[in-house]
Q: What sequence folds into this?
């Protein structure tokens, strides 16, 4: 198209340049001496060439193609925006769910920690009570052992003292009599 356009412009410009050099009186409008008419004819020929070459159709197709591309881009952008909003809403919902779950986990952990503390306190009180009871049992056992030892010593001392007293007071006849009496007591208890 450039090959046709440039020579035609050169041909049209030639008469207009030639007409501009004369300083005669103003020619009539429809005279070839009038530069405005030459320019108008050149412009009309130029427009005719453009129309014949299909430039307006090409421009219209290019504009339609560009409009379609812009429309496609806008639809794609709208779809991407809707998808982004959907994803954002999904992430916000997931974030709320995660936050709620985290709060539940923290609350549950607090409850478990409180229950564990109460259980530990109860176990400690039970352990203390057991140790106190064991200590009291040991004390009581020690008291009983001490009392038994004191009794046993008292009995041993009393027996030794009684033995000494009896040994000093006893004769052979009274010893034989006591032995017979003890044998009789044993026979009656065994039967």
A:
């Amino acid at each position: 198209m450039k090959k046709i356009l440039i020579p035609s412009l050169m041909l049209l410009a030639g008469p207009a340049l030639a007409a501009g050099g004369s300083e005669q009186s103003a020619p009539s409008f429809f005279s070839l001496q009038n530069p405005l008419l030459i320019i108008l004819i050149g412009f009309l020929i130029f427009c005719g060439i453009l129309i014949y070459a299909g430039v307006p159709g090409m421009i219209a197709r290019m504009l339609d193609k560009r409009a379609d591309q812009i429309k496609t881009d806008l639809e794609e952008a709208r779809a991407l925006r809707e998808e982004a909003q959907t994803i954002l809403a999904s992430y916000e919902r997931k974030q709320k769910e995660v936050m709620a779950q985290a709060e539940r986990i923290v609350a549950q952990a607090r409850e478990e920690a409180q229950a564990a503390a109460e259980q530990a306190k109860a176990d400690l009180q039970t352990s203390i009570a057991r140790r106190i009871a064991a200590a009291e049992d040991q004390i009581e056992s020690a008291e009983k052992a001490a009392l038994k030892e004191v009794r046993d010593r008292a009995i041993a001392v009393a027996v030794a003292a009684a033995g000494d007293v009896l040994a000093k007071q006893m004769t052979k006849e009274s010893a034989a009599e006591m032995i017979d009496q003890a044998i009789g007591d044993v026979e009656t208890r065994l039967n």
The first helix runs from residue 2 to 20. The mean pLDDT is 84. The CA atoms of residues 5 and 172 lie 174 Å apart.
